[in-house]
Amino acid sequence: MNDLALRVLLVEDTPSEADLTRFYLSRISSTRYDMVHVPTLNQAVDSLYNNDLPDIILLDLHLPDCEGLGGFERLHSLAPDVPVIILTNFMDDELATRAVREGAQDYLIKKEVDTALLNKSIRYAIERQKSDAALRESEERYALAVAGASEGIWDWNIRTGEAYFSPRWQDLVGVFQENVTAHIDHWFDRVHPDDLPPLQAALQAHFRDVQTHFEYEHRVMHEEGEYRWMLVRGQAICDARDKCYRMAGSMADITERRRAEQQLLHDALHDGLMDLPNRSLFMDRLDQAIRQHQRDGSKQYAVLYFDIDRFKNVNDSLGHSVGDRLLVGIARRLETILRPSDTLARLSGDEFAVLLTQVGTTECALSVVQRIHQLLRRKFKVQGNVIYPSVSIGIAMASDQYDSPEQVLRDADLAMYRAKSLDEPGDAVVFDAHMHATAVQRLRLETDMRRAIDRGEFVIHYQPIVSLQTGQVLSFEALLRWQHPQRGLVSPNEFIGVAEETGMISELSWWILKTAATQTRRWQKLILGNADLGISVNVTGALFRNENMADDLLSLLEECDLQPGYMHLEITERSFMDHQDAVLAELDKLKSAGVQLHVDDFGTGYSSLSYLKRYSYDTLKIDRSFIRDVTSMGDASAIVQAIVSLGQDLKMNIVAEGVENVEQVQLLRKMDCPEAQGYWFSRPLTREKAHQVLSQPLKLN
Predict the structure, then answer these.
(1) Per-residue confidence at 311, pLDDT binned at 50, 70, 90?
(2) Where are the beta strands (DSSP E) in 383-457?
């Protein structure tokens, strides 16, 4: 082969690809090639008729006058003794297998072809074609390859151990041998030690049942020193005694696919920001811990559940990038105190959970909590900002009552919220059964509340606010009540907190505002002498987070035909301190429109006098805790007198809440307190009873 030039017929319609093939052949030093190039099948047929037959045909499957294997079949029928190598851009295992079965010597993908591969493929094809015996063996070999892909071809004589590995197979592992005969150990010796026993077991299983298709993924050592993932397919044949004597198939490099799959799996189970296990992976490991505990009660575990206290303030004031870097810094610190068997996971946002395994007692879990607190007491420096985070931690210990990870995490969550409610920040609470009972009761209450809104079970009671000079009812405070079908009248102390946490408070607030405004306007029209009757409604700071709250309220008042000056919004000091920017911007709009602004429970919150001056509130309502002791404690009396004087100086009205006896009335009148409300005058009244008290002054003495 080295002395004579080999004649090559290239059937290719793309000039650039023909030039590339000519270039590859010209670079082969061991063999000279004379190439004839034709762009169509018909020209190739003419060439076979008019010239001496070539030594090899290189055939593209997609030609102007022929598509697919039709061109191959025609050329092969005209020159059956000339080997044909298919060169194509079309990667199709089924088509490749069919081509080999029908007589093609090889099926090469153009983008994978280079000088060495093309030379190897041509040499092998011609070598095999020269011998009739080699041809028959080759036909059997490629017929068996039907079950495999057309990548690297291998053929194994099971009895002798001899094996054939195609040039493409050898390229996959980075080696090439001139002698096409090798030993099967040339493959098996390169298999990863962990993969070899299961590969051999899979082969033995195939030998016992050759009707099944053999397919297996394993790692093979590449000549460059790295393991690469291979997908091997094949089929064995047996003799009359069902003893397998031969097996052939294909091998494909799937390393990139496996890497992509592993990365996808990793991404699916880990948090993208800090590369911690996410909720899915955490729940899976917790489920394993539960099962181990069920099988062996000595295998204890504990779950710590926590989020970062006041983390929203970090994001709001310093930006989300600082918040993200703080979370990453916290995670990296926490990893330093946990054992390899423990799991730290980011569940969502700033929520974390720790699964502790092999913890014998609650004290062991609490010791980890103590280390977490100590770790976080050290300052964090993030983008020039110094931050001291704290966490409140809920703990759920292993229990025979747990059947699912959701139950454990639920109880740890309940314990965390109990820890947050304690006075001292950064506390830890261990879950107990009472917390679960409370949570169930709370859930039932929440469900009943949602139904109550739909069923119209909420009602408004009205408590008079009277003049301490005349006893005249000047306004009412609208108080929400729940007329429960089984429990009767439910105190707002039981359900207002739930309404605020669940977001129902916004819907209820708008309902109260509309109902109270409509009723007030009706009283103004119907009852003589009450044209200036006002209505006070408690509003939560959450209501001011709604966009266009002020505009929506003014539209509501217009719809109810109530002048803005008769609507009194009672706002606690905490509401406008916790949501300053959002609340105060809306208060400006309402104040400009004439809506009355009252500070409720004055004296019990921040008592920010700067806000009183800045926003010119209309009324201060003295908290009932001061009125209760006004006649018995000198300090309380002095505070009430100071608030009344403050109101006079700032030209604000004053309302004393919780007045319950005549002595309080007399002292308040002496202090020149203008208005009051409380049980001494009237309890909160139904709409019908409130209607009755408007026609006559209430008693003062």
Answers:
(1) confident
(2) 385-387, 391-397, 428-430
